[in-house]
Amino acid sequence: MIIQVWSDYVCPFCYIGKKQLEQALETSGYAEQIEVQYKSFLLDPSTPVDTEESIYGPLAAKYNMSIEQTKAMTQNVAERAKEVGLHYDFDRMKTANTIKAHRLAKWAEEQGKGAEMNERLLQAHFLEGLAIGRMDVLITLAEEVGLNGEAAKEMLTSDEYKEEMYSDIEIARQLGVRGVPFFVIDNKYGISGAQPQHLFEETVAKAAEEAGLQRKLNMVGEQGALCEDGVCDIE
Fold first, then answer.
1. Which of 9, 99, 130, 166 is most exposed, with minimal Cβ within 10 Å?
2. Among candidates 219, 204, 210, which has minimal Cα distance to 30?
């Protein structure tokens, strides 16, 4: 079974939603039989590249708020993030053009490091305040998940993976996706946004049962005496 997730690396609810999905998979008993595919989405491709600007100014302008009102708004989001074990640091966060980040994630996926790269990019932006629009930062993050830095730099200085990134965005448009995170579960169910946890758990379980997946056993008690490989515990 496949779950597709459209998200952007500067979307605070995308990281929250990711953790909710991971928790739902863990509790479902089907996690090992479900593949999660992360798809690209650009909230604001016009954001300047290599900027080190705080997120407060652009957010205040976007929502026509004062800086103080903007900080209060982000504090509410930070409290929501704590519910899934994330400790956002909005004071350190920087605006970022995420086109290169998405391309890097696409490349990392082909190297077998897609999940690790996706998580590292979100962590870098929301928890560490790193400027994930900058090439030098992206190269360092790639190296941290075990990828070759020179190869990452060569890819980022080209136009590789732009087509794949924009293909994801076009599919989202066709699905009617207007915002992220957006989850498509087994091509049957859609979840828009970071919804209540029980909705993720119920939908994952329902889709898995309909797909005929075998639920992982919930083991009870400690391991007792047994025989295996022709040897029995007799002490």
1. 166
2. 204
